[in-house]
Design brief:
This protein has 295 residues and is of the alpha+beta class. It contains 6 helices and 18 strands.
């Protein structure tokens, strides 16, 4: 028995997950939104639900019990509260072939990473509030797209502005930057990237890229993503790995005027830069004039 095992206390649940990198990606995405999370561990699997402090984004994670190599849980289930930053650090250097074992006691969580070496981390089992309202939505646009092209399109749009606009019509899905520096990616019905599209009416809405960026890492573990939204209504993204692990992410639309405000900020920065360059050129001219007088 290791020193950490002796400090762990009575083990109520023991879970062994085969892909350390998948688990690390999941925890990293959660930590981008939440400081702490409450995991409900039952006979059916592991589930975590949370909302960011600003109440702009909601995330729901489900890992079926069949995804685990070992799964020992009592009939009544177990609750685990974790500081996500600490848990993410414990999983930060894992390799794809590493296996992660989680042992849960009423007061502690033992994380064991087994690969070429065995590393152990003892974290507290925290009391974390899990009172998050259930979110049910109806959408006018339903799009299923390959994860990598969708991630690239969002990243490109994010390079040109803080607000991303999504548009869906009967046979087209577009991702663009909602700014004066236009960049747009279009996916047409029948293309290799666009798996399915169903639109009740032309749908357009804008979302904060910084919040979208927080879950783009999930594209690593899901081949495709379901994108569902309505005009000026919340966006719903669903990622599902081949093994059945799923992530549901709901994001409120960007506040009205968010894109124009970003454009005004960029314009002000450009004007300030041009003014600064003008002052530098004027100063250089005065120096040259002064030098000729000395001659």
């Amino acid at each position: 028995m290791s020193e950490f095992e002796s400090q762990l206390g009575e083990v109520k649940a023991k879970l062994k997950y085969p892909s350390a990198t998948t688990l690390a990606t999941l925890v990293e995405s959660l930590s981008e939104l939440l400081e702490e999370a409450s995991f409900t561990i039952t006979k059916e699997g592991v589930k975590a639900v949370g909302m960011d402090p600003a109440k702009v984004a909601y995330i729901e994670v489900t890992i079926p019990y069949a995804n685990f190599l070992e799964y020992e849980v009592p009939e009544e289930g177990v609750n685990l509260g974790a500081n996500l930053s600490a848990l993410s650090r414990a999983l930060s250097r894992v390799k794809k072939t590493d296996v992660v074992t989680l042992e849960v006691s009423p007061s502690n969580l033992l994380v064991r990473v087994e690969g070429q070496t065995i590393r152990e981390y003892l974290l507290p089992n925290l009391e974390v509030s899990s009172e998050v309202p259930e979110i049910k939505l109806e959408h006018t646009a339903h799009v299923k797209i390959l994860s990598d092209p969708f991630k690239r399109a969002l990243s490109d749009a994010g390079e040109f502005g803080d607000v991303v606009e999504l548009e869906a019509t009967e046979n087209m899905f577009a991702v663009r930057a909602a700014s004066e520096k236009r960049v747009e990616a279009k996916f047409l019905s029948g293309s290799a990237s666009l798996i399915a599209i169903e639109v009740n009416e032309r749908t357009t809405s804008r979302y904060d890229f910084n919040y979208l960026d927080k879950v783009l890492a999930m594209a690593k573990v899901a081949d495709a993503v379901d994108v569902q939204f309505s005009t000026d209504r919340p966006l719903e993204l669903k990622f599902e790995s081949p093994g059945g692990m799923s992530v549901r992410y709901v994001l409120a639309p960007a506040a009205a005027g968010a894109a124009p405000a970003a454009e005004e900020k960029a314009e002000a920065a450009r004007e300030e830069e041009e003014e600064s360059e003008g002052e530098e050129a004027e100063a250089e001219g005065e120096e040259e004039e002064g030098g000729s007088e000395e001659e």
